[in-house]
Amino acid sequence: MDSPVVAEFLGHLVRASWQASILAGVVWLVIRLLGDQLDAGWRCRLWMLVIVRLAWPVSLPSSVSVFNLFEVPWIMDRGEPDPGTGEPGLLPLLRFLEMPAVQWVWVAVAGVLGLRMLGAAAWTWWVQRTARPLDSWDTWWLLQNCKAAADCRIPVSVLESRRVQAPCVLGLVRPRLILPCGLAGELDREELRLVFLHELAHLSRRDLAMNWLLAAVETIHWFNPIAWHITRQLRADREEDCDARALESEPGSGRRYGEVILKLLDRVGAPADPVSPEMSTPMLGDEEADIQPLLHRIHAIRRFRPGARTRVVGFCSWLAVALVGLTDPEPAHRWNSEDGDQASGPLLAAGHRASAVPMNALHRGWPL
């Protein structure tokens, strides 16, 4: 594979990854500075700005963009002039991206991760197909009461399955609340109510659709470890936000809620079938792999106070970060007094080799 089109596409990805990495540092700094003044919901919204930056398809130049302060020489610098014509050569990065081995590696890894997405989708379809309805009038009535308390108008049914180890919501088009077999009989009515409120919070947040977006970002930006860290942090913060939403609907149940999480964690054993959390919203999140997020959730549940949402601070910080992070640097025009040519940004707009024509967007310094 030696495609200039693929090289141009990879150039777009590199630029988006660089900008998202800068924005992730800004978001991390804002979260660290504001601390408890930002609840989990607003932290999720801030991290989502980084995800949007990774997939941002348009350019909005602005004087307030944080990227006006940063320049990346290994992306923006020109190559050495051609000895015969004196014209600038290919950028070092573009020359690297046009190497067939580099393009094949990206395509191969992205293909494997794409197959993982398809496998996760097939797993969710299989779980829904093999799950059996929970035929209980009390459970149905409890679910309707929880939907009213959580102000959730999305139709959802309750099923039982041996193929899940913790309560979760599956199905992007027709969502189903899946319970492990026997769990409804092990939990009392109040505990089951807390489980329902948590999973309904995932539906209200549209987390099933977000799962696909996060998986797509991980697939195309697999080479950026910061992208993987952001998606993992976003999944952890959304579990904490769903905890807060459930506790707001059921004030004074913090201790009981923590006991339910510990009971579910104790119930989880070695799964008989492979589980795929990518396209589901398990109540335990990813805590089976890392206990630290679970400890953070328990600590947040202990400190939860009804009505403590930080809407004003959260919105102001989110708006400020969006203005500086979702905009691009303004084109910096300068005059080269030696050759009398005007350059736009750090790159000259013309004079590249014919092989570099498909890469003209990057050569000209156009926003990607």
Core attributes:
four-stranded mixed β-sheet; globular; 56% helix; disordered C terminus; 368 residues; mainly alpha
* Overall shape: globular
Biggest sheet record: 4 strands, mixed
Number of strands: 6
Strand content: 5-15%
Series of secondary-structure elements, N-terminal to C-terminal: HHHHHEHEEEHHHHHHHEEH
The Cα radius of gyration reads 25 Å
Unreliable sequence segments: 73-79, 86-90, 270-275, 333-368
Spatial arrangement of strands, main beta sheet: 1-2-4-3
Distance between the termini: 23 Å
Structural class: mainly alpha
**Total helical elements:** 14
Indicate the mean pLDDT. 79
The helical percent reads 55-70%
Question: Can you walk me through this structure?
Answer:
By secondary structure, the protein is mainly alpha-helical. It is 56% helix and 6% strand. It has helices at residues 4-34, 40-54, 73-76, 92-97, 100-130, 137-150, 183-186, 189-204, 207-220, 225-249, 254-267, 292-303, 311-325, 360-363; strands at residues 132-133, 157-161, 168-170, 176-180, 333-335, 342-344. The strands form 2 sheets. The chain has a 4-stranded mixed sheet with strand order 1-2-4-3, with helices on both faces. Strands 5-6 form a two-stranded antiparallel ribbon. The radius of gyration is 25 Å and the shape is globular. Residues 73-79, 86-90, 270-275 and 333-368 have low confidence and may be disordered.
